[in-house]
Amino acid sequence: MLAKKMIKVFDGGLLSIPPPNTVWKGKVNMVSVAIMGHGVVGSGVAEILLTHKQKLFSNLGEEIYIKKILDLREFPDSPIADRFTKDFEEIVNDLEIRVVVEVMGGLNPAYDFVKRCLKAGKSVVTSNKELVAAHGAELLAIAKEENVNFMFEASVGGGIPIIRPMNQCLVANNVSEVAGILNGTTNFILTKMIEEGMQFEDALKLAQDLGFAERNPAADIEGHDACRKICILASLAYGKHVYPESVHTEGITKITLDDVNLAEAFGYVIKLIGKVKKLEGGKIDIITAPMLVPFKSQLSNIDNEFNGIMVRGDCTGDVVFYGKGAGKLPTASAVVADIVDCCKHLKARRFLFWADGDGKNIIDYRESVSAMFVRVTGDGALDKAESVFGEVNSVADGDMTALITPEMPYGVFEEKCTALEADGVKVLSAIRVGDI
Ligand code: HSE
Fold it and tell me: What does pTM read for this prediction?
């Protein structure tokens, strides 16, 4: 017993079986971790581990020691500059490193590195939603096989706890729907357009300067980032991997100040929404798209880089999670929470799992039913629209008319728009009205 508690410290690592000639320094317990990536999130993780050392020690009862940081760049001014490496092999082959944090982003080489770390018996924590959305089922299966943990709280909602609450606190519920504002950059852009009449490009530039945007902001503004996040939540909620390729995705690049202003006239704000709903019969309806959100919805008040996620459980009713969905320290906070959880469970797996999926449980987006906000122009546009859609609510603005159609499957809506355009009406925009 004594031997187990007397931990040898020779460079901050933890070994339960001390090698010969050990110099004992007393009962100092440490867990060695490595961080792969020293960008916005990675530097935030290192910062929290260093500045909150005592706070974390009092929770964990052990010190979290950053043994290595992997990055191709030099950081000579870092207080732990001597622990940087450019060589992944130094991490994967280091038996003392028990938890590896992947915050490099992108699929390559993150996928290969994470797989190798798991197979080497190390727990892995990642903030990389692209990785989890593309390979989550496989990586969870490897973690299960190796009896280690693969955790990704920071991959959805930045600093908002959502993976752990859904996986643990809401486990008693059948979840009928998850809907959320899952991308800070686009929410920031839309908020600036709505509140300040700012142009799209200026707002995007500001979001990039503030460090919210992805390395390639197309992933934000084209909806792919939000899509990856709703895929992760859908996989977790329904137990089968949902791949982003199976999900109809639209971004916010076509949203104009006219859309924003006319939506407001109807009592709505425009938000980029990721949404998954379980239908009768068991299939799911999943989409990422800009939607009109009614002022009365809790999601309508979630502004700037904040995210909000509504989970509808059959026992709880609606539960809403709110907080900063992007940014250095909020995201790093979620990563560090996973590191602590992994350190507490070095020898036992936390249950977090879903099976692989084949997409057969997802309906075609053309079958998905919603009302539509449509902005049209042309002679007699309103009368012609009513003859196609039936009676509609409408607002006129100069030579434009905005209207809200009755609910219909999206495929039917597309056919009606084609008929309307054949009748000489130009459809300037079409945005789903969110039932949220
Ligand atoms: N680019 C992402 C966002 C970062 O704006 O939400 C957090 O995932």
Answer: 0.92
